[in-house]
Amino acid sequence: MKLHYKIATLACALLPFYAFAGGNPDHVKLPGNYQQIFTQYDKSNRANQTQVAKFFANEIAVASYKKGEEAAPGSIVIMEIYEPKKDAEGKIVAASDGIFEIEKLAAVAVMEKRADWDESFSSDDRTGNWGFAVYSPDGTAKSNDLNCVQCHTPLKDQDYLFSYGKLVNFTKK
């Protein structure tokens, strides 16, 4: 019986880490009206080839990359993640340009860079002062078993962004 209590206690203690392992919505918020005030710089199939994404950046990020610098504090980059349309056989439908046709929004991932994070936001939960969070289409925090920090940390030379090249190229236009 004591073992059951220990397991239950351990599960309750670890649940918050599992539920938001892909980010920290307590510190990284979903900006309201970002689709109207941010710049969409790309739409492409995700590397997993099972989703399509639209990428947005705020003016601070765009201005930083236009200057050839890394993103300044206050930069926010957003990735809308969509489920693609599928045909009757369950195969993903792509448009003539190869980009998957969009069925519905599945999640919104937010990266925010700040130099003044609250001390309660551990540096272990950030990468290069970038914080992360994932939201459901309705704007509520989404549970996510991916570890954003672990995947973005190797991208130091790309300012920790998977879409860095696309954003930099966009700013050169």
Topology:
Elements: H1 2-19, H2 34-37, E1 39-45, E2 52-57, H3 59-66, E3 76-84, E4 102-113, E5 130-135, H4 148-152, H5 164-171
Antiparallel strand pairs: 1-2, 2-3, 3-4, 4-5
Structure characterization notes:
This protein is an alpha+beta fold. Helix content is 25%, strand content 23%. The chain contains five helices and five strands, in the order ααββαβββαα. It starts with a helix and ends with a helix.
Q: What are its keywords?
A:
173 residues; alpha+beta; 5-stranded antiparallel beta sheet
- The strand count comes to 5
Rg measurement, Å: 18 Å
Number of helices: 5
Overall geometry comes to globular
From the helix content, strand content and strand pairing, which structural class follows? alpha+beta
Main sheet attributes: strand count, strand direction, barrel closure: 5 strands, antiparallel
Low-confidence stretches: 1-21
How much of the polypeptide forms β-strand, as a percent range? Answer: 15-25%
Mean pLDDT: 88
For the largest sheet, list the strands in their spatial order: 1-2-3-4-5
> What percent of residues adopt helix (DSSP H or I)?
10-25%
- Give the termini distance in whole angstroms: 66 Å
Order of helices and strands: HHEEHEEEHH
